[in-house]
Here is the input.
Amino acid sequence: MKPRSADLSPGTAPSPPVGPPADLIVEGGRLVTPDGVRDGTVLVRDGRVAALLAPGEPLPPGPRLDAHGRYVLPGLIDSHVHFRTPGLEYKEDWEHGSRAALVGGVTTVMDMPNTRPPSLDESSMLAKAAVIQGTSWIDYRFHMGADPDHPELLAELDPRIASSAKVFMAGHHTAPVVFRDGEQLRRAFAAAARGGVRLVLHAEDQHVFDLLDASSGAPDTYGGYEPHRPRSGGIVAVAHVVRLVREYGTKTHILHVSSAEEADLLSAAASEGLPLTYEVTGHHLSFTHDDTTRRGPRTRLSPAIRECRDQKRLWQAVLRGEVATLGSDHAPHTVEEKNRPPADAPPGLPGVQELATAVWTGLRTRDIAPDEAASHLARLMGEGPARLFDLVGKGRLEAGADADLTLLNPSDRWQFSAHDVQALCGWSAYEGWTFTGRFTTTVKGGHVVWDIRDGFSGRPEGRWLQGSARPLEVAR
Here is the structure.
């Protein structure tokens, strides 16, 4: 939807200008702000939100974007994506991944380190940023990979380059390095605490899986995948992490929590005051083990998608405010890779485009009122990740914030198909789903970069977000 000049009825005298012209006026929407949801208008100047106006307040001159009947949310943040660059661009790349993000209302992502080569130090992340520059439609930041052979690097990590590091406690097809030794993990927690680095963890215990593999081997059906990688791996790992956080005080965020027991443990640890938070994915909220049994590799994920009771507990955690972030774990593979025999098919599925819409649909299906549902999205994909990962100017619709916005039609019912998929892999586990709610326009830096009617506008101008005011050029 292209911004338009204000329409005047014949013979109507224009109102006198109010203040300097705006670069964009997002008029008449339902604004989802940190202080609540209300009707109003957003003024944008110089790439930032200049003001939020109440209905009826006089407007300055400037191009207008009609937001009536839409929620206006801050540009959403997906703090868990795998855009596969460098080395795995045949599965996904930043051009396609960032387009998928925009269509799903996401304007900022945080990319994971398990690429080829993996991002295990500052120099590899600088090289990765150089490859991505000029190809992303959205802003981005990186999680560095924690190296079990060099955990001391976490104590010296330059926050301009990264302020968080991914720890794999269990392996799978694309995990570059795994913390198999307890002393290595302990050293990583100690070093991260000294460096003020937030650890983000794939928290499943590899020793539990090795023990089970020795007795039962790999599954020969997709229905056997979840029992092959059971909840016990996550429960053991989370209990271990809680002990380490209590000992070192390390800021820690558990990714893609899959079971009721893990949610119980983590919520209890947070209530004790430990600096321990957790993420839930849209996939674990949308699917159950029965879907994997029926549909095979399309919903094969790591950690595995579990039972109805687990899904129910994760939704409860979302609604109670126990969950800190929603992530897509956007991890595309080719159709050929996913159709390999059960023992060889890699876990992972695309999701950055589908995440917010799937969660909105789930919220509305559970009779959550629209304003409350919008507030949940803004908290879990806005304020929450922005706060945890120091994304200055992101995730809040307020004066002074970056003018990243997305407009949501809350009641549109539509069926998602392969034709809608923007990810390079060309498929989605949500094909055939009837969604409630649809993003219609995304604004990045004060400019409309995607609209449902007009498509994409401009060119990729996403920025690598710095962790401090100092320029990246002087980073090591």
Summary: Confidence is low (pLDDT under 50) at residues 4-14, 469-476. Residues 370-388 form the longest helix (19 residues). The chain is about 30% helix and 20% strand.
